[in-house]
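Thread: quick sanity check before group meeting

JM: Hey all, I'm pulling together slides for Thursday and realized we never actually wrote out the predicted structure for the chain we discussed last week. Dropping the sequence here so it's in one place. If anyone has concerns about the input, flag it before I start.
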Amino acid sequence: MRNIFYLFLIIISLSTTTMLQAKDRMLLELKYGTVEIELFNDIAPNHVKRFKELASSGKYNNVVFHRVIDGFMAQTGDVKYGNESSEEFNLSLAGTGGSTLPDVKAEFSNIAHVRGTLSAARSSDPNSFNSQFFICLDASPHLDRQYSAFGKVVSGMEFVDKIKKGDGPNGLVSDPDKIISLKSK
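JM (edit): ok, ran it. Output follows.
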């Protein structure tokens, strides 16, 4: 009888672990393919919470990658001015807006900004993350402990690499690619 009880506990434990892991995975749909993202809930819980909140309400759907610098990063997430399906869409203002929610306080960590890292975009104020984020296209150690890394691409980085690159030193994209959808796995 005791063996059955222990077996039951092991099964419940494995099921719970699998469900928790599934909650920390997101699917980013691009026109090139699906990107799977693992979120660092234990490292940056407030950033993950905001990211999932905006994603679950569909706020990231149709938001453009307004700033993409080859060999550096692809930035998106301006749910106010960067959403192509919104009345407020304005490509010249994309990157200056956010959500109606309050900003999130920085959660700096020792997570390195390597290829595939998902991190919070912000202004010069470290506590100004709202909705915008970026995916590192290459290692960017100058961002370490200066920006809140809250996830990483675990599959589909080849699709992120195809996102249309911008022009000039700021990487502004004149005819940008967009997020088709972003949802929990």
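AS: nice. Residues 25-184 form a domain with the Cyclophilin fold (CATH 2.40.100.10). Residues 115 and 138 are 4 Å apart (CA to CA).
JM: adding both to the slides.
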